[in-house]
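Reading a protein record of the kind used here takes little practice once its layout is understood. The reader may check this reading against the record printed directly beneath this paragraph.
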Amino acid sequence: MDAIGSDAAVPLHYTEYDTRVAAYAVIVEDGRILLTWFNGGPGRATPCWSLPGGGVEFDESVEDAIVREAYEESGYRVELIGPLATHSFARAALPGGRPFRSLRILYRARIVGGTLGVVEVGGTTDKAEWFELSAMPDEPLADVVVVGLDAWRRLPRD
């Protein structure tokens, strides 16, 4: 099976599909993780808890995107500690569209200023909250949260 789930063994050339690069902050402090509520956008996806982050703009570095997105979605200014994980997935083309690949880059980050509260207006994030690692929310979690927590848990402890 190829990367987009068909039985065809013909790989796609990178010019034959669209790519979205997204970047996320994994912020764990005092046994709690910072999550943001993704509202699903206008009919695009199922609402769920996610990590602060999102699409990297065309002329933006991954690191700048994480800092910007974390601020917009949580109200916090963050400092990046270092790369944590990458994750990707692919989807077959929707009617009238092209196949799609998502590349997600996760960094560890820490709070260096700001106040909890969504700054972005009219975006896909409605709120940000801290959750105890031992008591994650009952509402759905985006798979990027699981990717981030799994990578964070594999880190050596001081």
